Amino acid sequence: MRALQLQEWKSDPVMVDVPEPDPRPGQVVIRVGGAGACHSDLHLMHDFEGGLLPWGPPFTLGHENAGWVHALGDGVTGLEVGQPVAVYGPWGCGTCARCRLGAENYCENPAEAPVPSGGGGLGLDGGMAEYMLIPDARFLVPLPEGLDPVLAAPLTDAGLTPYHAVRRSWSKLPPGATAVVIGTGGLGHLAVQILKATTAATVIAVDTRTEALDHALRNGADHAVTSDDGAAASIRDITGGRGADVILDFVGVDATLAMAAAAARTVGDVTIVGIGGGTLPLSFFSVPYEVSLQTTYWGTRPELIEVLNLAARGLLRPDTVQFPLDQATDAYHQMENGQLTGRAVVVP
Ligand code: NAD
Ligand code: ZN
Question: Ligand 1 atom 33: the closest Cα is on which residue?
Answer without folding.
Answer: 40
